[in-house]
């Protein structure tokens, strides 16, 4: 056991908590709405199930934890060398990777909005512009 306060989850409970969250996501898609655009049913609203993305914040909300719980847990685990902390750290790392991969694959396949997922994953497309002025924009004559 770790020094100080015990962890909220044992390694087995922590893995089960992740599995419960993933099952919830898989079995409870987000409902997207869209209107039928033509024909007799034009204007009728359709409800289209879309896979619910796996997120760390979603895990925390599902289990009634604060949104910073996982980052604080990660920081705490990094300070401990015992077996329980190492197991919890491995479980956390593995399931964070699962969240990342599911969002990335979903965005690549067009299931999720690629721009939103890219920002969520920290994938920013940076472009650099460099402007070089070869001639002055205004001559001395223009100032008069």
CATH topology: Topoisomerase I, Chain A, domain 4
The sequence of SSEs as H and E is: HEEHHHH
Structurally, the number of domains stands at 1
Number of helices: 5
- Give the CATH class: Mainly Alpha
Span of the ends, CA to CA:
81 Å
Question: What structural class should be given to the helix and strand makeup?
Answer: mainly alpha
Described by the principal axes of the CA atoms, the overall outline is flat
Helix content: 40-55%
Task: Tell me the radius of gyration.
Answer: 24 Å
Strand content: 5-15%
Number of strands: 2
Unreliable stretches: none
CATH structural architecture: Orthogonal Bundle
Which strand order spans the largest sheet, edge to edge or round the barrel?
Answer: 1-2
Write the layout of secondary structure elements.
Layout: H1 11-27, E1 30-35, E2 45-50, H2 56-62, H3 69-78, H4 83-108, H5 114-120
Antiparallel strand pairs: 1-2
Keywords:
144 residues, mainly alpha, Topoisomerase I, Chain A, domain 4, two-stranded antiparallel ribbon, 5 helices, 47% helix, flat
């Amino acid at each position: 056991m770790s020094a100080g306060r015990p962890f909220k989850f044992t390694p087995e409970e922590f893995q089960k908590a992740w599995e419960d969250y993933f099952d919830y996501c898989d079995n409870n898609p987000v409902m997207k709405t869209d209107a039928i655009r033509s024909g007799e049913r034009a204007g009728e609203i359709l409800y289209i199930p879309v896979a619910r993305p796996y997120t760390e914040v979603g895990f925390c909300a599902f289990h009634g934890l604060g949104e910073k719980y996982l980052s604080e847990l990660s920081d705490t685990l990094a300070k401990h060398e015992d077996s329980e902390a190492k197991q919890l750290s491995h479980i956390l790392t593995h399931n964070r990777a699962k969240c990342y991969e599911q969002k990335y694959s979903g965005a690549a396949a067009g299931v999720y909005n690629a721009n939103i997922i890219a920002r969520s994953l920290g994938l920013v497309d940076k472009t650099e512009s460099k402007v070089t002025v070869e001639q002055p924009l205004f001559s001395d004559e223009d100032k008069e």
